[in-house]
Design brief:
Blueprint: H1 2-6, E1 13-22, E2 47-54, E3 60-67, H2 75-87, E4 93-96, H3 103-111, E5 115-119, E6 138-141, E7 144-149, E8 158-164, H4 165-195, H5 201-214, E9 222-227, E10 234-239, H6 241-249, E11 253-258, H7 265-273, H8 275-287, H9 299-325
Parallel strand pairs: 1-4, 4-5
Antiparallel strand pairs: 1-2, 2-3, 5-11, 6-7, 7-8, 8-11, 9-10
Helix pairs in contact: 4-5
Length: about 325
């Protein structure tokens, strides 16, 4: 109500994203404190997951605290119900990334008459790979191109293929770093086996699994051969050039999916990129408003900590908008 009074803020687009915040301590009295995928790169700590909904300009509308081991996609149903309770069942466009964009969530949105614009899993890129080589791209801005492609899964949704030169450079640099490390680790492992210092097939498989896990970004482009055991143990590896070439080919590319009609490709891309406002909200919460780490231990105090940080963020964005309206 206050956002509507203070600003001419449309509620037609809801940006949804998740983050995590970790605990200093064991959080033993908090059933939500669990180990899970840590966006803070602290897998050694228990955590809680926070889902946040903001408007297209970053004003916060609501949040929810989930257990630390909560997967992303199942959280959407709870957030949709909460937004409908708070703001009614108006037709709104949900924008979220591929971590939330499960087929179950998209189907639930369709049945409820909802609209969505989402990122897709990278596996769908393979089905439109040939489109990357063809022309008829539309330039959105310098270094960003988009085009509409046929549905790779036979659905009636619209798919927008996007590629970014800056993103391609960044992903290529990351790929090169992981590839170099992978080659070095495999070469050392092969030398260890040949020297006879490693004779156990089980230990070799364990080390190989650890290498693949730590270099999962490039591991799919490698083939491994393990033969024998004990003193007759042999290990060798080769590169799958076809997979390696494909992984290079899709660098900087991503695929968007929507059931919106009547929108041009550049407009849809700009709408999706507003998801950065939700990510910017998390950076503000973590860096300026100290939502991490959590020093409280009980569930009620942890939720109170998140509430205070959410209210502080609401005030932060409100003051920011008021200042901009007055050209301060």
């Amino acid at each position: 109500s206050r956002i509507g009074t203070l600003f001419e803020e449309p509620f037609d687009i809801l940006l949804y994203d998740l983050t995590s915040t970790y605990f200093e301590g064991l959080g033993a009295s908090n059933p939500q404190a669990r180990r899970g995928y840590s966006r803070d790169h602290r897998p050694d700590c228990v955590q809680v997951v926070i889902g946040l909904v903001v408007t297209r300009s970053g004003l916060p509308l609501g949040y929810e605290v989930f257990a630390g081991n909560q997967a992303e996609s199942p959280t959407l149903e709870d957030m949709m119900a909460k937004m409908e309770t708070l703001y009614g069942k108006a037709s709104r466009i949900w924008v979220f990334d591929r971590g939330v964009a499960s087929e179950r969530n998209l189907e639930a949105l369709r049945k409820a008459g909802g609209l969505f614009l989402v990122g897709t899993p990278r596996t769908l890129l393979r089905k439109v790979e040939t489109e990357l080589l063809e022309e008829n791209w539309t330039k959105v801005r310098e270094g960003i191109e988009v085009k509409r492609v046929a549905s790779p899964d036979g659905s009636e949704d619209t798919f927008i293929l996007c590629r970014s030169s800056d993103r391609r450079k960044k992903e290529a640099a990351i790929h090169d770093r992981f590839k170099q490390r992978m080659d070095e680790r495999l070469a050392r492992l092969e030398a260890t086996v040949k020297s006879g210092r490693l004779c156990s097939r089980d230990v070799l498989q364990q080390r190989l699994g650890r290498i693949k896990l730590e270099h999962s970004r490039v591991a799919r482009a490698y083939r491994f051969r393990v033969e024998g055991d004990g003193k007759a143990l042999n290990f060798s590896w080769t590169k799958d050039e076809a997979k390696a070439q494909y992984m290079r080919h899709i660098e900087g590319a991503y695929l968007l999916r929507t059931n919106l009609a009547g929108h041009e490709e550049p407009e849809l891309w700009k709408m999706y990129m507003q998801l950065n406002d939700a990510e910017a909200a998390f950076r503000t919460l973590k860096q300026d408003l100290s939502i991490r780490p959590v020093h409280h231990q009980s569930e009620d105090r942890v939720k109170a900590h998140v509430l205070v940080c959410f209210l502080a963020y609401a005030m932060y964005r409100t003051l920011d908008r008021l200042a901009k309206m007055k050209a301060l």
